[in-house]
TrEMBL record:
This is NAD(P)/FAD-dependent oxidoreductase. The keyword RNA-binding does not apply. Keywords: Flavoprotein, Oxidoreductase. The keyword DNA-binding does not apply. It holds the Pfam family Pyr_redox_2.
Length: 340
């Protein structure tokens, strides 16, 4: 079960710890929130928290998942914007609210929270947001890695419109590859599915045929490239099937080591469990973006970051109020009583 906000919870131990932190905050040693990961999710969380006048640091290693892509699509008002341009604008915006940007790799996070930077200092935080994304494991087929994000693509919603009506191929290298091919039929009448090493069921074949998706049987040898453009897919027996764009469903692996080391629960599919705000099963830890949601596009991740920032600020506020009440009670108890 995920922890839920509870105005009546006992915070004595937490109050003492947080009071100590705040005593240190004057010399700049404690952050309200440390965000690990400076993509859309992490920056949007930092933006909302910075605007809430929280002391925030964003630690980013500079390796976004969408770095190979030249443009970012499907983001209202930012459609077609280069990914690095969005991050550049975002970093400028959060800095204007006093958020500190730290270019570094986080080695590990110790309970408490102590965020250890690789070869650097340790940041103390009251709450942490992990927005470290995921990595795409691509099939070991020559040409796939080299063309990734150019004309070897994954997301139909990100790239399908740009290759509409072109000869499209879909590689059968993932259990979801058949569904991938069926979806791509919306963007082109010329879609060929390459089963590669997949064993297609009769139902698979029937569904593909019903959508007029042809099959190119045989093992894929490599992607044929000429003049820095994809020209086709060559099969092991030597035949080349002309294609101008090929889609592949990668194996998505969350970069969630920081979360699992803290003891965050995972679901049956191996993804960290969160509530609607990104709150994990561990007190004070949020996870947003692709590290917890493989389906999150850039615009989705940004929204998740905003929701997390909202929830974290209220969580900190509850703690601030509880601490203030405890301190007021302690002062009242310590004051001598005078009677005339």
């Amino acid at each position: 079960m995920l922890p839920q906000p509870d105005g009546g919870r006992t915070l004595c131990a937490e109050v003492i710890a947080v009071s100590d932190m705040n005593n240190q905050a004057a010399d700049g040693s404690v952050y309200d929130v440390v965000v690990v990961g400076g993509g859309a999710a992490g920056l949007n969380a930092a933006l909302l928290l910075g605007r809430s006048r929280r002391r925030v640091a964003v630690v980013d290693s500079g390796s976004p998942r969408n770095a190979p892509a030249s443009h970012m699509m499907g983001f209202l008002s930012r459609d077609g914007m280069p990914p690095e341009a969005l991050l550049g604008v975002g970093r400028t915006e959060v800095e204007s609210y006093g958020v500190e940007l730290i270019d570094a790799q986080v080695d590990h996070i110790a309970p408490g929270f102590y965020v250890h930077l690789a070869g650097g200092p340790v940041l103390k935080a009251r709450r942490v947001v992990v927005a470290t994304g995921l990595r795409d494991e691509l099939p070991d087929i020559p040409g796939v890695r080299e063309r990734w994000g150019r004309d070897l693509l994954h997301c139909p919603y990100c790239h399908g419109y740009e290759v509409r009506d072109q000869p499209i191929g879909v590689l059968g290298t993932h259990p979801n590859a058949v569904n991938h091919a069926l979806l791509m039929r919306q963007w082109s009448d010329d879609v060929i599915f390459f089963p590669h090493t997949m064993e297609l069921t009769e139902e698979d074949r029937e569904r593909l045929a019903a959508r007029d998706i042809r099959l190119a049987e045989g093992t894929v040898k490599w992607l044929v490239v000429d003049d820095d453009k994809l020209r086709g897919v060559e099969l092991a027996e030597g035949s080349v099937v002309p294609r101008s764009a090929v889609f592949v469903f990668p194996r998505m692996v969350p970069r969630d080591g920081l979360l699992t080391d803290l003891g965050c629960e995972k679901d049956a599919n191996g993804w960290v469990v969160t509530d609607a705000t990104g709150r994990t099963s561990v007190f004070g830890v949020w996870a947003v973006g692709n590290v917890a949601d493989p389906r999150a596009q850039v615009v989705t991740a940004a929204g998740q970051g905003s929701a997390a920032g909202f929830a974290i600020n209220h969580d900190l506020l509850d703690e601030d109020i509880a601490r203030a009440v405890e301190e007021r009670r302690a002062m009242a108890t310590a004051e001598p009583s005078f009677r005339l």
